[in-house]
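Lecture 7 notes: from sequence to structure.
We start with the chain below.
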Amino acid sequence: MMFIKSNGTSLAFRNTLAASLILAAVAGTPSGPAIASPAPRAATSPVAIDAARLASLPTFIDGVVAQQIATRQVAGAVVTVVHKGKVLFTRGYGYADIARRVPVDARSTLFRPGSVSKLLTWAALMQQVELGKVDLDADVNRYLDFAIPPFEGKPIRVRDLFSHSPGMSDLGYGEPDLLAHPRDYRDYIKKHIPARLWAPGTEISYSNYGAALAGYIVERVSNEPFPDYVDRHLFKPLGMNTTTFREPLPEAWAGHMALGYGFKDGRLVAKPYENFSFIMPAGSAAATAPDMARFMLAMLARGTLGGARILSPASVDLLQSNSLANAPHLEGMAHGFMVAREANPRMIGHGGNTVDFHSYLLLAPEADFGFFVSVTGGPDSSPARTELSNAIIGRLFPAKPAQRASGEEARPSLGQYRANRRDYGKPADPAGDLTVSVAGPNTVITKDSQETLYWERIGPHLYERVTGARDGGPYDRLEFYGSSADPRLSFASSPHQTWHLIKP
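Predicted structure tokens for the same chain:
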């Protein structure tokens, strides 16, 4: 799941989980109303990947992961890459169980995708939209057996769930008592409705609750328990035979599960299986890399794989199209997916962090390319997922630094900024705030509890990260925007939240 484990800006993809074939044996597109906006996907030119770089990618990844195992408390990892309708390779690294010296098996070891699971949930919800059972612009209360109060008379629409803009507090879901024992997510979401804070559809603030609500809507309108539904209508038609949302993990699968780890006295110590059943559709999946490859292949093929169609092309286009962005000139949300790069080529993806596992899935539809990575290990293994993902992107789709801006502009609002994604039922923790200062003309410095970063201006109110930038990128950007009454900043690497200036 996408927990707020830190507010550092170094993670190029923050901590940041789609489709139809209602009958597994039917290859046709389910009937239903036409999918509402956006307009049909515009024709795009295919983007070629350098053949030599693609051929050397396995060796390149081997080197990156070997270094991470040595320096990042990584116990085990898995990587799978797809291109032009095929799985290029799937590789496992390190150990699934250190104490028993069980190596990661790239084909059969289960990992926890965390919030990447949400992509499956969004697909399932789109199936119901295709069937005409769910209206994207309807009040979510139409499909519930409990009521979510409106905010200033404005209800949450189904569409707002896809864009992570319900305008709600994001409850803390990493507490040990929640993770210790399975519990029914249906009861939990009814008893723990987050506070409504601003009008829906106006500001993105990542919502685990919203994704759980999406899964519950699927359950309600299909009359099937959520884990049964995804088994029958996603996993079975796609051949994802080793993926489940069920907790506890089915006994027959337990021996294939990679362990999570803590770090104590200089060594990795195995931990019990994490339970996310209380928010199941938002992040409780366990899956093998080959299954995640099949999901990517279906999404890149606009909803079909091996003769089975799980979504119509229009539904896949919707999931992959832009919905809402916080900052005027930075990437925002697609529908469930986050936009990682707008062009050359366009990339969409989703990250996932449980306490123990750290994952990322990325698709570049114009290049017919995708990858999924997942690592397990100690607390310091979290950045490994991001570093590996960025390394792959920079290797295959290199970018150049933007031209630096000339002249000067009025300096941005300086001081302390606070993320809008947090649990508003608890006192704000100043340790999570971000300090913005200047080092000279056309530069800003951001500092949080983890690191200090240097940025240079590339346009009006727009800056590019210098600290830690590697040749080929990706290069993170930040933008200052808002009003004098409410100055804000956002990072391209964090489309799922924004930061507000804390007024004295």
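Points to note: The chain is about 25% helix and 20% strand. The radius of gyration is 21 Å.
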